[in-house]
């Protein structure tokens, strides 16, 4: 039973900043989360909506200063079709392909995923694992927030109410390896039970792993890095003993919960097994 | 606000609140009830329409975001679209198809791809978008193309057959 | 004759050489059926062009919008209904139990479920209807909904059926001496199986629009399976006579049992508001409300003790079956009875005892869903049988061969199976088409040689089922259904039945049957709308009875019409009916159901012919299990179903394919968790059904072992595939992993628990409580 709140659709980012400065608008990107609330049956609809869809400044995928930059309004379909994303952020392409199905991928945006701040947001562990930076903008200018600081608490972001998420920067790191795995209830249109992103570089001479990043979704109130497990993997190589230690470390490190989608024990155990599998595949044993 | 949409090739103006769902604009303001609502949360795909040729769940699209865009719905698929006779609930069910079903609609009819029919309009639009890509109609490609459209009647088997049949009959731009 | 269906996608199948199916004596065959090209779906073009009108597509000028205020507690005394005095109520119509003109009951089996909970009465489940509102616009209605509050006093709630003392129904079937049979057995196998709720998940939600009639009555247009169920409920609840209450089926977007009884509730609510406001009122549920409030498949707990000899002969089955009916009776006694009769599976066992009980809990009432109790009890029976096969070291196929019913077999109700017994045939056909034994030895070898490097496992599983065709026991005879056939004065042949089209093909096969009988082209036969003002009560569209029972009556009515016209004209019907209409005027046949000869059932002792015939189904499922995540991919299902007689191959296959996927969903992902008696999976983001990417390849093979007493031999198809898919998938998961999953759905969480000993999830179907549990007092 939809009842429509008022909406304003600015044509320029500057206008949008002014409106955001007013403070009481809920920003709208592709609408795949917000529109669900319009009927009022699942959550309260927003009071006022700030439609960002026309802002060309928030679109586009480019390489700028050795970083892959994605406008906040970049859709999952655009990520899947992007040659630059395939080259520099294949894990992000994989994540985008697991979200919803074509209808959602054509509308849902990476900025929306970040701002919705769900612990189950499928691209968020990838952003953590790739050391992404999120660029917030407002009337007073832009500031850069590292992904590790972007989701301070359940369904919260580091943005101030007068700021908008403008773009996401993923540093391009030579020879960085990336892996992504989502465990959901079904093969499309599923919210994850566990989502895991792993990135590392191989030290040329020693073959040891460096710059290891392991991030997970749906296992805590926010998307998280698994620092303890990263430490186990840092400076090691993906052999069977390391894989066992890392998987056990991850299981010990995570404190997931039971919910309507899965159980804490499953999430914990499967996170370990998925990591183990990725390490096995990486090690080729 | 007044929004200008091209719906099934016809330029249309509609006055509506900007946050009105495209689904409601089509069904209630324009009287195009062929597009169905199954969940209102972008899970079932019954409300699938094409915006500039791409599938979307029209329950998740506010009309303010499709101003100036081209919308295609199930009502636009038949050759005689727009002149379709009103529904059949009040009368007796006619026996055979009219001559003006589009190729995909005809394939659905022949293979048994429509049962209860409520997912059918959305399924047809997803199928239509797939055909337009000109991709090879493999089982896997068709399944992915309709993964956002739930059907509870068919087990999808005959829907996949129908899309493959239509693809074989009428190769897309790439094929 | 057997119809073979080519598989959907390139999978070659060897020609089979299974035993010949039962041959129908030539005199009883309907000529030409299933041999001519199948006609296209009658209402297909309307559905494919978007012109078919479902309830929410109907426009009634000036209609108001209706809403239902529901309980938010599982068990409470309703002390009062508070309307916020700060709100302008003149714009809103409010209806409570005090405004109900007739009896405050939703008429069905027992009069225990109110249309609205009265003040002073008991709320017995979450989401129970209490107050109705209507307004001219949605904004007002939405605001009004927030301004109604219920004053209640909490009562202790019972969620665990094992703890409930309120018995809705019970049955006790005995054949032979089960104690002696168990004592004589070489081996005893015990098992307990639990299944949770399943939602029908028709893609069109429940929806009704009520329109006041000039005669003081009301016409209800909506999404429904059984026009005369709603009609009866309206007459009773609104104190209307038969003409004043009118029910018209709109195009219906799926039912699967979910629109058997609940539409009476929705229709009553819409009608109460329409009569109160004097305007049409639209009561269109959204998905959240539909999931929250409407009926689900009954959860069940089934325990088996099976006695078997070393040679694989099963000599005794002791089965205890407990079903959770939810808070009200609805259809539970009938669901339980079907579950009970099918609980042993399709096996001729000399000593059987089946005791069953359905109890009430403080959860929303459970109701009809494709299979109607049999999927629950046959999942248990088949999984038990597969474990027995393990225990005696026989292949699941061989064990079934040694025990399956054959002609002359005697069921637990002491019914002698006289004809159309095709258990053996469907079993052999499924085994052959799937190369079951070969696949099974391959998976066994892979399992034996599996190393740590193998991270996926492949498995194959087999199940067999039977499904009683039509109503249980004396139900059909009591129903007294009527089908009418008209030759109008304008020379049009028209079928009048209350059987609804909800996707399964009623509107196509009835004209097909009549046309074949009359010798005319199918296009010359029309079918009247399902409107109680027009069509007679041909019974509800349930129990896989439409093709078999009502279709049989269409044939018989056609024979009578043909004979009548030909007697007058002396020429074949096809050549003379138009002349006859012109010269003689309209003719009409009202054909009442005639009980099948020799079919008798004693309700008092619950013995006799529980069903006029049984359909038989076998399925072989192949799965792949990820050994790290325990995710299950169902790769393929070979479904072999004996439907008696195939009327329309395409529609018939469609039933098997759809039912098979619902069974795969039941087996793997469809799950409802509850908290304080409320469903937590109350939107489509959390109640998941299979997408096209989750659906297996389904290969359908149709077998025809005719039901001799139906003029066309048909036995029904709708429910059969639902009984057999889940145990086949679970057997395949066992074949892949070595773990028996005894609770449905077989989620990765349960498989992991079974394999690794990590804490299993809670058993299915039972609500968690958010606060410390209070004393489980009486449920009502």
In short:
The complex is a heterotrimer of chains A (285), B (175) and C (780). Chain B is α+β, with helices and mostly antiparallel strands and 175 residues long.
Description:
The complex is a heterotrimer of chains A (285), B (175) and C (780). Chain A has 285 residues and is an alpha+beta fold. In chain A, 32% of the residues lie in helices and 24% in strands. Chain A contains eleven helices and twelve strands. Chain A has helices at residues 13-22, 76-81, 83-88, 90-97, 102-105, 110-116, 124-129, 147-150, 227-233, 240-253, 264-283; strands at 7-8, 26-28, 49-51, 61-64, 67-71, 133-138, 141-146, 164-171, 177-184, 192-202, 209-217, 224-225. In chain A, the strands form three sheets. Chain A has a five-stranded antiparallel beta sheet with strand order 4-5-8-6-7. In chain A, strands 9-10-11-12 form a four-stranded antiparallel beta sheet, with helices on both faces. In chain A, strands 1-3-2 form a three-stranded parallel beta sheet, covered by helices on one side. In chain A, a hairpin with a 2-residue loop joins strand 4 and strand 5. In chain A, helix 10 (240-253) runs antiparallel to helix 11. The mean pLDDT of chain A is 96. With 175 residues, chain B is an alpha+beta fold. Chain B is built from five helices and five strands; from the N terminus they run E-E-H-E-E-E-H-H-H-H. Chain B has a five-stranded mixed beta sheet with strand order 2-1-5-3-4, sandwiched between helices. In chain B, helix 2 (103-111) packs across helix 5 and helix 3 (120-133) packs across helix 5 (157-169). Chain B starts with a strand and ends in a 6-residue tail after the last helix. Residues 82-97 of chain B have low confidence and may be disordered. The radius of gyration of chain C is 26 Å and the shape is globular. The model of chain C is unreliable at 1-36 and 776-780 (pLDDT under 50). The longest helix of chain C is centred in the C-terminal third of the chain and has 24 residues, at 546-569. With 780 residues, chain C is of the alpha+beta class. At the B-C interface, helix 2, helix 3, helix 4 and helix 5 of B face helix 1, strand 20 and helix 16 of C.
């Amino acid at each position: 039973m939809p009842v429509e709140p008022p909406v304003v659709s600015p044509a320029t980012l500057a206008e949008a900043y002014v409106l955001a400065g007013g403070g009481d608008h809920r920003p709208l990107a592709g609408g795949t989360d917000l529109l669900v609330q319009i009927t009022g049956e699942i959550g309260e609809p927003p009071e006022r909506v700030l439609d960002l869809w026309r802002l060309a400044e928030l679109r586009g995928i480019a390489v700028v200063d050795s970083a892959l930059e994605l406008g906040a309004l970049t859709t999952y379909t655009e990520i899947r079709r992007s040659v630059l994303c395939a080259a520099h952020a294949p894990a992000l392409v994989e994540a985008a392909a697991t979200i919803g199905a074509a209808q959602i991928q054509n509308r849902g945006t990476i900025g929306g995923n970040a701002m919705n701040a769900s612990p189950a947001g499928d691209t968020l562990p990838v952003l953590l694992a790739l050391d992404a930076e999120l660029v917030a903008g407002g009337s007073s200018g832009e500031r850069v927030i590292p992904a590790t600081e972007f989701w301070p608490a359940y369904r919260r972001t580091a943005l101030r109410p007068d700021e908008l998420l403008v773009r996401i920067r993923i540093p391009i790191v030579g020879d960085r390896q990336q892996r992504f795995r989502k465990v959901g209830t079904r093969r499309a249109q599923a919210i994850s039970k566990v989502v895991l992103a792993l990135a590392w570089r191989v030290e040329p001479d020693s073959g040891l792993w460096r710059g290891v990043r392991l991030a997970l979704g749906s296992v805590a109130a926010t998307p998280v890095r698994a620092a303890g497990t990263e430490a186990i993997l840092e400076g090691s190589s993906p052999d069977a003993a390391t894989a066992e230690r890392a998987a056990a470390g991850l299981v010990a490190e995570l404190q997931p919960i039971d919910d309507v989608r899965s159980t804490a024990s499953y999430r914990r155990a499967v996170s370990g097994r998925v990591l183990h599998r990725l390490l096995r595949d990486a090690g080729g044993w | 606000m007044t929004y200008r949409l091209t719906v099934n090739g016809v330029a249309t103006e509609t006055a509506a609140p900007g946050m009105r769902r495209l689904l409601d604009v089509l069904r209630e303001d324009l009287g195009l009830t062929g597009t169905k609502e199954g969940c209102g949360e972008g899970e079932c795909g019954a409300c699938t329409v094409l915006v500039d040729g791409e599938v979307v769940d029209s329950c998740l699209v506010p009309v303010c975001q499709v101003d100036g865009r081209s919308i295609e719905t199930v009502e636009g698929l038949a050759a005689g679209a727009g002149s379709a006779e009103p529904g059949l609930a009040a009368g007796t069910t006619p026996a055979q198809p009219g001559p003006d079903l589009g190729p995909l609609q005809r394939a659905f009819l022949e293979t048994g791809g429509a049962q209860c029919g409520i997912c059918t309009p959305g399924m047809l639009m997803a199928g239509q978008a797939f055909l337009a890509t000109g991709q090879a109609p493999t089982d896997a490609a068709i399944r992915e193309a309709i993964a956002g459209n739930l059907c509870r009647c068919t087990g999808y088997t005959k829907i996949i057959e129908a899309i493959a049949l239509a693809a074989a009959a009428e190769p897309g731009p790439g094929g | 004759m057997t119809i073979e269906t080519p598989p959907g996608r390139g999978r070659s199948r060897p020609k089979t050489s299974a035993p010949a199916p039962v041959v129908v004596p030539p005199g009883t065959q309907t000529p030409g059926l299933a041999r001519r090209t199948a006609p296209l779906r009658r209402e297909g073009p309307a559905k494919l062009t978007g012109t078919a009108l479902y309830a929410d597509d109907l426009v009634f000028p000036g209609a108001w919008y209706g809403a239902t205020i529901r309980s938010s507690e599982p068990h409470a005394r309703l002390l009062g209904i508070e309307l916020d005095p700060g709100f302008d109520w003149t714009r809103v119509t409010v209806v409570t139990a005090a405004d109900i003109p007739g009896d405050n009951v939703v008429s069905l089996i027992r009069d225990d479920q109110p249309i609205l909970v009265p003040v002073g009465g008991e709320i017995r489940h979450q989401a129970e209807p209490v107050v109705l509102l209507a307004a001219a616009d949605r904004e007002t209605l939405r605001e009004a909904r927030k301004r109604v509050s219920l004053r209640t006093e909490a009562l202790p709630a019972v969620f665990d059926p094992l703890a409930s003392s309120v018995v809705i129904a019970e049955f006790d079937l005995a054949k032979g001496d089960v104690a002696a049979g168990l004592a004589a057995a070489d081996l005893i196998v015990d098992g307990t199986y639990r299944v949770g709720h399943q939602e029908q998940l028709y893609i069109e939600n429940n929806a009704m629009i009520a329109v006041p009639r000039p005669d003081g009555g009301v016409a209800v247009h909506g999404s429904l399976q059984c026009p005369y169920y709603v009609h009866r409920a309206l007459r009773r609840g609104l104190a209307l006579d038969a003409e004043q209450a009118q029910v018209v089926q709109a195009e219906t977007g799926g039912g699967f049992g979910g629109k058997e009884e609940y539409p009476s509730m929705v229709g009553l609510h819409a009608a109460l508001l329409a009569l109160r406001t004097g305007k049409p009122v639209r009561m269109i549920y959204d998905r959240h409300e539909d999931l929250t409030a409407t009926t689900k498949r009954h959860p069940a707990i089934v325990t088996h003790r099976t006695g078997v000899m070393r040679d694989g002969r099963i000599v005794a089955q002791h089965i205890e079956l407990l079903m959770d009916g939810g808070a009200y009776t609805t259809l539970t006694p009938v669901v339980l009875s079907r579950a009970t009769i099918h609980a042993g599976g399709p096996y001729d066992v000399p000593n059987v005892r089946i005791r069953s009980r359905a109890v009430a809990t403080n959860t929303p009432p459970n109701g009809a869903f494709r299979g109607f109790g049999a999927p629950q009890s046959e999942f248990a029976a088949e999984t038990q049988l597969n474990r027995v096969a393990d225990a005696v070291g026989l292949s699941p196929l061989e064990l079934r061969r040694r025990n399956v019913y054959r002609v002359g077999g005697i069921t637990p109700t002491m019914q002698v199976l006289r004809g159309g017994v095709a258990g053996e045939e469907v079993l052999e056909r499924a085994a052959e088409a799937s190369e079951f034994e070969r696949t099974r030895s391959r998976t066994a070898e892979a399992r034996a040689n599996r190393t740590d490097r193998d991270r996926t496992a492949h498995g194959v599983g087999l199940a067999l089922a039977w499904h009683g065709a039509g109503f249980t026991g004396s139900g059909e005879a009591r129903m007294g259904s009527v089908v009418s056939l008209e030759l109008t004065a304008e020379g049009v042949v028209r079928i009048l039945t209350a059987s609804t089209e909800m996707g399964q093909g009623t509107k196509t096969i009835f004209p097909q049957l009549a046309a074949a009988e009359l010798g005319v082209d199918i296009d010359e036969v029309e079918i009247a709308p399902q409107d109680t003002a027009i069509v007679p009560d041909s019974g509800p569209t349930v129990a896989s009875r439409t093709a078999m029972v009502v279709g049989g009556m269409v044939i018989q009515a056609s024979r009578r019409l043909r004979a009548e016209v030909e007697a007058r004209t002396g020429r074949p019907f096809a050549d003379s009916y138009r002349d006859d209409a012109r010269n003689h005027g309209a003719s009409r046949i009202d054909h009442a159901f005639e009980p099948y000869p020799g079919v008798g059932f004693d309700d008092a002792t619950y013995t006799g012919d529980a069903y006029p015939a049984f359909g038989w189904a076998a399925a072989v499922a192949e799965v792949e299990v990820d050994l790290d995540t325990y995710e299950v991919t169902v790769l393929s299902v070979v479904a072999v179903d004996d439907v008696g007689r195939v009327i329309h191959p395409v529609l018939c296959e469609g039933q098997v394919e759809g039912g098979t996927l619902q069974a795969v969903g039941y087996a793997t992902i469809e799950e409802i968790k509850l908290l304080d008696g409320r469903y937590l999976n109350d939107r489509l983001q959390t109640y998941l059904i299979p997408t096209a990417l989750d659906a297996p390849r389904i290969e359908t093979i149709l077998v025809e072992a005719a039901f001799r007493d139906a003029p066309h031999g048909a036995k029904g198809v709708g429910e059969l595939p639902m009984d057999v898919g889940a145990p086949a998938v679970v057997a395949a998961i066992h074949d892949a992993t070595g773990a028996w999953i005894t609770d449905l759905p077989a989620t990765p969480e349960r498989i992991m628990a079974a394999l690794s000993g990590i804490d299993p999830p809670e058993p299915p179907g039972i609500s968690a409580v958010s606060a410390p549990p209070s004393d489980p007092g009486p449920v009502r």
